[in-house]
Amino acid sequence: MTPYKVMIIDDEKIVGDMARMSLEQDGYAVETFLSAEPALARLKDERFDVVVTDLKMKGIDGMEVLRTIKGSYPETKVIMITAFANLDAAIEALRADVHDFFPKPVKIKELKASIQRALSKP
Amino acid sequence: MKNAVDFLKSCMNRVMLFRRHSESQESFRALFGRFKEVLETNNRSLEIITDMGEKLGGDYLFDITYIRNAYTSLTQEIGQSIRGLDALTRNRYPRLREAFLRIDRQIQLMLNDAPAGLRVMTVFFEDIGWDMTRDVGGKNAHLAEVKNHLGLTIPDGFAITTYAYDEFIRHNGLQEKINALSKGPSVAEEAIGELRESIMRGAVPAEIEGDLRKTLATLRERSGKCFVAVRSSAEEEDSDFSFAGQFETVLNVPLSDDAVTDAFKRVIGSLFSSKAIAYQRRLGYTVGQMKMAAGCMVMVDPATSGVIYSANPDGDADTLMINATWGLGASVVEGQTDADLYIVKKGIQPQLLHAKYGKKQSMIVSRREGGVSEVRTPAEWAAKPCLTPEQAAELAIQAMTIEKYFGSPQDIEWAIGRDGKMYILQARPLLVPDSSESLRLSPRPAGDKAYPVLFQDEGVVVQRGAAAGRVFIVREPAELDGVPRGAVLVARHDSSLFVRVMPFVSAIITETGTPTSHMAALSRELKVPTIVNAGNVTQILKQDEEVTVYAGENNAVGVYKGIVREILARAQQDSAGMENIYEFRKKRYILRYVSPLNLIDPLMEEFTPEGCKTMHDILRFIHEKAVAELVESARKESARLRGSEKVVKLDIPIPAGILMMDMGGGLDVGRDEKKATFEQVTSVPLRAIVKGMMHPGVWHSEAVSLGVNDFLSSMMRMSDIVSDSERFAGYNVAVISKEYVNLSLRFGYHFNMLDCYCGEFARNNHIYFRFVGGATDITKRSRRVELIATILREYGFGITTKGDLIVARLTNIGREEMEHILDQTGRLIAFTRQLDALLRDEGDVGYYAQRFLTGDYEV
User: I need a surface site. Which of B238, B265, B368, B431 has the fewest CB within 10 A?
Assistant: First the structure.
């Protein structure tokens, strides 16, 4: 069975590194990006099951990543994580069909559970 | 005539006291308020520290924004605590602020990803402080501590800093070549060779070369004509990873500017060998990320030298292993010689258990012109032991000292000079294979029910993990000496004194305690699986019983009979090995300046602002000094209270003659009431103490006969106070609030003081108990002190005694537990009131202690 593919986009290396370490142990195939531009470029070549993206980033931000994915690859689930969580952002993301929205620091176990839920949903 | 003078004197005293009193009462109330504020800010700080420890523990995805925000809140709270202490003590500790700023500077450097702070090329070992790790590299910093803190001998010398490294790389334009290496999955040998050649050809920038020249001249002056060894000391070397054998050491270098510079370059170059690069990559470094400092130390001309493993790598932590050979130890380090092997049992008097004398056919010696060479060992030496049993024991003691200080097994290089002098050349963490490593791949258990459960689902998990070992129940601090390695430490109360054994125990379980205590911080730091508040484990678990302890998420707790491998394996899988991520280690490194606790015992010499190395230390210092200030002010306050209008007499069936001054919430009486019954006392700690004093049978009848009745006896005492000297002032006075009491008692010639805070949060609570005096001779008085100490120890007090003075402290106890202890303390005060006349010999001490502890108060 081919493993599920998860993409992590966060401008801080530590987030991607830790998520990758943890998710790979569970058998996911993980790719990490420090900004949205190369991540979106990669999505053109490769289908990902779940994208975990930071909200606030230089250049293209997480909200735009969400909208782009939902516009072009609606089957890909998006989970948003942010250190600057506020209700407005959460509502905006929910309207744009985000699968889940977590303030950082996020418990890895909860993120994994969310990824599993995302994968079990049609 | 005398009576008239006394009468006049007493009148004057009363007038003076009245006047002084109204001012002091207000100021004491204010002081108490400030004390409570300090407790609150300290609490908030500790909560932040706990949160940071949790979030940076590997279970959360976090980023620098979180660390910055948390740290900003922390500094605000601590700043307020410091201001609170300043106000309490009238700025008695100005250096505390300096200590705080020093630690803050280190953390800010890390938060801002700034380069190390020193702008010099060299620092002598005696000048290397704990906050210079980034400047001098891990190994040098470690060795400096061995010299500066442990007072062990290391060869004279200095560190060449990471600043020198940076400048060297910059000056010679090497960064590009280094960057080129990090591209692609593997590194070409050719590129490595080229880079190392460029390093050897490179020049040291003039401004730092001057610094090196000056330092070498100083060393020449201090040590005469000599040679030096130049050793690597990379950034993280000696922290979580040993880097053993990764980098180069250049031995017997002539003490000339050129030769030392060349050796330095060789050491730098060793960062880029293919094996070192592979090792760095495994640890998550990209090539060029790690910086190299170096140590430059006078060569010892050794008769014998070698290596100590302070724990036996076979897994037996009770013994240590010494390898020794003639001449230089390089051959032992590289494992080349058939060296002597000594196995020593650790302990206060180390014992040589086993010695195997190697053939040592060759040895390495320093060459007269520099460098080293291997020569044949003179025949008469070859099979002779290199060490006497005394030398082996002395080396063992030094190794144990170093191991204890750094809190983990150590790999130590040593040498003994021809003059018999012992030197430590290097000490780094020894990675002992984890005995549970092989269990990693065991299948997950179907459910815990399959294992014989001794204890389950009660308690608070402080540090997660699983471990197996034999139960060792510690009832008093002295028993810590007997804790065997690998034991599961079980105790009634948590205690920061456990730090002594923490590196060696496999788990800790206590009946009381909180996850924010000092011990808890230490458990997390040292990653010892720890459960507190775990019910009556000292009853359930049996001494020496083999158990498996599981401390999981959401306070999932289990203690199982025997060794349950599946549970040990599960805990292994729970942790994801984040330590292998460079960014994670780097961010977590900040915690080193935040959460460890170095100031443990207030009686230690280092218990000073200068001794504070972390934010937690600062908080510990503030708490200790705030309590001390409160105790002292309350004592003075109660001395002033005699004759005050505001005091209320405690009306109880025993003639304790206690007057109370309520600062708020301590009494439930009308405004002008002058008496209060026991039922009207709402001060939690005073109520508990008095309850104990009134316990049936503990207040002996002889004492009652002293005062004909309650009223009269207290009147007599009052007149005693005012007509007697200051020394008797303030006895039997209680300054109280809802959560607080400072109780000064005098019974006959005994002076007793109890200062207690008993609030909602365990970490705020303290009992300070002081007892002095007695009418009998000093021997009997000391016996009484011993009796009190024996009993208080049973309740977990830390104790110091001096002649007939005893000071006992207990902190971090939950309210219920504290009420119980204060009840017992009340009984003890009543019980021992006149006991010293009865303590005829040492045996009586144990006898009466036992009687007391079993609730038999007959005398």
Answer: B368
pLDDT at B21 over 60: no
Report the length, in residues, of chain A: 122
Residue B733 to residue B646: CA distance in whole angstroms = 12
- Quote the ipTM score: 0.94
Q: Which two tokens stand for residue B483?
A: 């804790």
Alpha-carbon B807 to chain mean position: 21
Residues of B in contact with A13 (CB under 8 A): 583
CB atoms within 10 A of CB B433: 10
pLDDT in tens, B568-614: 766 655 554 777 777 787 788 788 889 888 787 777 777 899 989 89
- Which CATH architecture is the domain B437-577 placed in? 3-Layer(bba) Sandwich (3.50)
Rounded to whole angstroms, the Cα distance separating B744 from B391 reads: 54
B62, B553, B581 member nearest A104 (Cβ): B62
Report the phi/psi class of residue B544: left, alpha or beta, with left for phi > 0 and alpha for psi in -120 to 50: left
How close does chain A come to B586, measured CA to CA in Å?
A: 10
d(CA B844, CA B578): 58
Which residue type sits at A44?
K
Q: Nearest 5°: phi and psi at B448?
A: -70, -20
Q: Nearest chain A Cα to B553, which residue? A: A109
The letter for the amino acid at B481 is D
User: Collapsing DSSP states into helix, strand and coil, what is residue B319?
Assistant: strand
DSSP letter at B218?
H
CB A78 within 8 A of CB A51: yes
Chain B residues with CB inside 8 Å of A107's CB?
59-60
Q: Which domains does chain A have, with CATH numbers?
A: 5-120 (3.40.50.2300)
Closest CA to B702 of B744, B659, B745, B748: B748
CB contact under 8 A, A17 and B284: yes
Going by C-alpha positions, the residue among B493, B96, B357 that lies closest to residue B104 is: B96
- Other beta carbons less than 10 A from residue B573's beta carbon: 12
Cross-sheet strand order for the sheet of A50-54:
A29-33, A5-9, A50-54, A77-82, A100-103
CB nearest to A14's CB, from B55, B553, B583: B583
Residue bearing tokens 């009992």: B767
Return the pLDDT at A116.
94
Burial B107-119 (b: 16+ CB within 10 A, else e): bebbbeeeebebe
**Model confidence band, residue B825 (pLDDT cutoffs 50, 70, 90):** very high
Using alpha carbons, select from A88, A93, A48, A31 the residue that is nearest to residue A67: A93
CB-based contacts of B286, cutoff 8 Å, min separation 6: B182
Residue B857's CB is within 10 A of a number of other CB atoms, namely 18
For residue B443, the tally of other CB atoms under 10 A from its CB is 9
The pLDDT of residue A60? 94
Peptide bond preceding A105: is omega within 30 degrees of 0, i.e. cis? yes
The residues spanned by each domain of chain B are 2-114+595-623, 122-429, 437-577, 641-853
d(CA B741, CA B659): 12
* Cβ separation A108–B576 shorter than 8 A: yes
Separation in Å, CA B763 to CA B77, B433, B522, B757, B821: 16, 37, 15, 10, 16
Q: d(Cα B41, Cα B632) in Å, to the nearest integer?
A: 22
The verdict on a CB contact (< 8 Å) between B66 and A104 is yes
Name beta bridge partners: B60. A107
Longest dimension (CA), chain B: 108
Among the CATH numbers 3.30.470.20, 3.90.280.10, 3.30.200.20, 3.40.50.720, which is that of B122-429?
Answer: 3.30.470.20
Residue B736 reports pLDDT greater than 50: yes
